[in-house]
Recover the amino acids of this structure.
């Protein structure tokens, strides 16, 4: 039997308790340290994952999570999103370097914070874009008010070191709608809205409209059709029509202008301005232009086989097509461009293209004329060219824009300058064509002042190939009869 005294027992118990307390404190300190470290580490990870390291703003990932949360709760969807696009920041980075650009971004973010009550819903979306999300009122004015304040912030340059840097901001404003069931759709529509901001707008902002999506879908369908046309998969949607041109001195059809047409189901007839502009936007205009030229030359070749070698054919050539380094070389190498074809072929170039790239294009025109192709300046009078500078161009003809022709029907002769244009063009050796002639008064005026050629609805609308040839035969046959009489 072991016999411990009370004092000895108390002593042993005390030691055990102290040891236990020490162990507990050590465990608590260790656990606390681990938890604190984990908290710090987690906080750092959250910052890395959800915050932009340049501006300190919530980043794209945070924006996506935030929008995902809004879209699944109907009560929270009553929001408006502002997408801010600084469209010259990439150029700033290329010019001054990325460190300079990052400092500029910080100042941009700080400036925008000045007009916001909180930056909790202010995000850096990507390299040169920011997003603001705010409660939506029934009126657009609150969103417009913030957008205008942000735009005005950058009326003055940002001082960055010794440089004064202007930044250009555009703002797309989008209300969350029923169609916005995903974050991607929200951001796609906001980005689409940016494309509707015109450079000439007083304020560079635009509100999203669902019609914008319809236009986008239409463009996508048209681009597919154009690609199929160019590749040869679609041989029916795209075609040419031919508008007769009348020589006023002989009253005979002396040629045609080839005009591109596009008709496709279910979109119907597409205006040329629309599909040509789209082809330029999508970098398809060179291939489409070559396709148009080939169709036109095929028609010209068929006319010549029928003995109509004195009939000319004008084809519109885009500035993009003309400025390609291989354009003239491709013409020289084309086996279907016989000497007979070249002599009957005319290229029409718009005045604006000739003015924007005067020297470069003039050299190209000189080479084109050496091939035997004549050159016409289309839409003359819509730009700011002078007849003295036109005299230096390698062109044969000017086509007076229909604006000047329309005025003949409504103004007295003394208020018209059309006759002066005709006279001065003749003095520098150019032939004159009047386009858009629609009534007898216009024709009589143009005949009186010596215009060489007319085309327009008074003569004929653009015609399909067979109808164009029939018109040529009938009109010129009638002219011969009139001359004999």
């Amino acid at each position: 039997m072991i016999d411990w005294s009370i004092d000895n027992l108390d002593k042993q118990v005390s030691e055990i308790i102290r040891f236990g307390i020490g162990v507990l404190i050590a465990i608590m300190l260790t656990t606390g340290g681990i938890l604190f470290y984990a908290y710090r580490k987690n906080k750092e990870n959250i910052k890395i994952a959800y915050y932009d390291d340049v501006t300190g703003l919530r980043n794209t990932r945070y924006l996506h999570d935030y929008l995902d949360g809004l879209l699944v709760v109907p009560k929270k969807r009553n929001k408006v999103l502002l997408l801010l696009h600084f469209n010259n920041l990439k150029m700033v980075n290329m010019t001054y370097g990325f460190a300079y650009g990052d400092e500029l971004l910080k100042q941009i973010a700080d400036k925008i914070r000045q007009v916001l009550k909180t930056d909790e819903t202010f995000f850096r979306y990507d390299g040169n874009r920011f997003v603001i999300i705010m409660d939506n009122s029934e009126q657009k004015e609150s969103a417009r008010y913030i957008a205008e304040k942000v735009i005005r912030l950058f009326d003055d340059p940002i001082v960055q070191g010794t440089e004064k840097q202007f930044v250009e901001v555009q703002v797309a404003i989008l209300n969350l709608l029923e169609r916005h069931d995903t974050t991607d759709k929200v951001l796609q529509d906001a980005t689409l809205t940016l494309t509707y901001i015109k450079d000439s707008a007083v304020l560079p902002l635009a509100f999203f409209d669902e019609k914008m999506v319809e236009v986008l879908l239409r463009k996508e369908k048209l681009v597919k059709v154009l690609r199929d046309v160019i590749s040869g998969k679609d041989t029916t949607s795209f075609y040419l029509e031919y508008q007769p041109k009348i020589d006023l001195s002989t009253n005979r059809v002396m040629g045609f202008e080839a005009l591109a047409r596009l008709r496709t189901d279910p979109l119907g007839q597409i205006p040329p301005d629309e599909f040509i502009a789209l082809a330029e936007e999508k970098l398809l205009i060179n291939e489409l232009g070559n396709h148009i030229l080939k169709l036109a030359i095929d028609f010209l070749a068929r006319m010549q086989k029928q003995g109509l070698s004195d009939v000319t054919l004008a084809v519109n050539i885009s500035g993009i097509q003309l400025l390609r380094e291989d354009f003239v070389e491709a013409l020289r190498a084309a086996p279907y461009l016989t000497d007979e074809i070249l002599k009957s072929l005319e290229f029409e170039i718009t005045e604006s293209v000739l003015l924007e790239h005067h020297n470069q294009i003039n050299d190209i025109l000189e080479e084109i004329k050496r091939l035997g192709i004549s050159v016409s300046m289309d839409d003359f009078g819509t730009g700011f060219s002078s007849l003295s500078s036109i005299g230096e161009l390698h062109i044969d003809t000017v086509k007076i824009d229909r604006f000047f022709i329309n005025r003949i029907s409504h103004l007295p002769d003394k208020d018209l300058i059309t006759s002066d244009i005709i006279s001065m063009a003749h003095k520098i050796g150019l032939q004159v064509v009047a386009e858009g002639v629609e009534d007898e008064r216009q024709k009589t005026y143009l005949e009186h002042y010596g215009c060489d050629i007319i085309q327009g609805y008074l003569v004929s609308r653009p015609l399909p190939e067979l109808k164009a040839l029939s018109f040529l035969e009938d009109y010129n046959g009638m002219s011969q009869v009139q001359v004999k009489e």
Observations:
- Residues 240 and 295 are 7 Å apart (CA to CA).
